[in-house]
Amino acid sequence: LKVILINHGSEPFTIQRGERIGQMVLAPVTRIVWDEVEDLPETARGTGGFGSTGV
Questions:
Q1: How far is CA 14 from each of CA 3, 5, 17, 22, 37, rounded to the nearest angstrom?
Q2: In which domain, by residue range, is 4 found?
Q3: Residue 1 falls within a domain, yes or no?
Q4: Could you give the number of structural domains in the chain?
């Protein structure tokens, strides 16, 4: 595991062994399978498209 650090300050910054400098976040990756169709069914939104809720 490696971490890229950039010091944007003008003063040198020393990191000592054992100091905490990062955080690992594990996130699931969902795999999907597309079901290709010729036409989409009619929806409650109708032909107005995105944002056409009737309000």
A1: 15, 11, 10, 15, 58
A2: 1-28
A3: yes
A4: 1
